[in-house]
Amino acid sequence: MLTLKGVGKRYPTGDRALSDIDLTLPRGQVLALIGPSGAGKSTLIRCVNRLVEPSQGSIRLEGDELTALSGAGLRRARRSMGMIFQEYALVDRLSVMENVLSGRLGYVGFWRSFFRRYPEDAVREAFRLLERVGLEHAIDKRADALSGGQRQRVGIARALLQSPRLLLVDEPTASLDPKTSRQIMRLIRELCAERGLAAIINIHDVALAQQFADRIVGLRAGQIVFDGAPSGLTSEILTTIYGEEEWDTRVEPEDTEARPALASREPGASRAFTPAVSGGLR
Q1: What confidence score (pLDDT) does residue 262 get?
Q2: Domain map of the chain by residue range?
Q3: pLDDT for the residue numbered 127
Q4: Does the N-terminal peptide bond of residue 267 adopt cis geometry, omega within 30 degrees of 0?
């Protein structure tokens, strides 16, 4: 579904954020990106949807070469990639419903969105999504009246209203307490399974990655140093990714029966190496 070949990113300062990234993500797989701060995790996600321009390489989404797109073609491609942000990226003065409906901005014209005139089917789907993420009681609340976990759920519903083929998730639990973090990760995984969505999740919490991801990719200094099943994260591998530390790797996935088996090497077989409405809104 998503294929990256030789992707690199060098900033004008000369700093290299990514080096020769090769990655293939099949439909329905939940992939967790782990690694120390500055390893290139957020840069990699943003290169996929071209919020950051890659310096080299190929990024293909279901046959479309994303690096060759511009203008209307790039806007159409971005509609198929739902982005969930660490800091939620909500408009505080708008209601929960209005924030979710903003997920359809790529499909409606400026004036229809300005006057909140979204298609009725989009409004119905927004209601369904808010019920699914447990916020049907908060539809008319302003976004700035919500807790962190609730704000993240709004962000998830907004991303899904795009009808994406791929979810790009940047540190969804960074500002949340441990219980809420598990709830959010569980929700993302369940929604991906229900909708057959692939997802790339940039996450610092290794235990959450092991519990909720199908596959883990470890980055260090902009290079892939591990690509495999969560069970392959030994203390030695974690030391390769993060450096010396005392690691406890005894983490079990929450639902091993629901986790699809990883293919041999294409993609995600274990590898490790040292880094060289109409009518208006009612």
Answers
A1: 40
A2: 1-80+165-177+190-260, 90-163
A3: 94
A4: yes
Q: Which two tokens stand for residue 202?
A: 């940039």
Residue 113 is predicted with a pLDDT of: 58
* 7, 54 contact by CB (below 8 A): yes
Q: Which residues contact 196 (CB under 8 A, 6 or more apart)?
A: 27, 28
Q: Give the DSSP letter string of 35-88.
A: -STTSSHHHHHHHHTTSS--SEEEEEETTEEGGG--HHHHHHHHHTEEEE-TT-
Q: What is the pLDDT of residue 243?
A: 87
Looking from the CA of 118 toward its CB, the CA atoms found within 13 Å total 23
pLDDT of residue 121: 87
- Tokens standing for 197? 């969505």
Tell me the mean pLDDT per 10 residues along the chain, length 282. Answer: 96 93 96 95 95 96 91 88 85 91 72 65 92 93 93 94 93 91 95 95 95 97 96 94 74 54 40 39 38
Give the DSSP per-residue string, 204-250: S-HHHHHHH-SEEEEEETTEEEEEE-GGG--HHHHHHHH-S------
Half-sphere exposure of residue 246, counting CA atoms within 13 Å on the CB side?
0
Helices 178-195 + 148-161 axis angle, to 10: 10
- For tokens 């046959």, what's the residue? 63
Alpha-carbon gap, residue 67 to 19, rounded angstroms:
16
CB 175 within 8 Å of CB 184: no
CB 198 within 8 A of CB 29: yes
In whole angstroms, what is the distance from residue 185 CA to residue 208 CA?
8
- The CATH classification number of 1-80+165-177+190-260 equals 3.40.50.300
Look at residue 20 and give its three-state secondary structure: strand
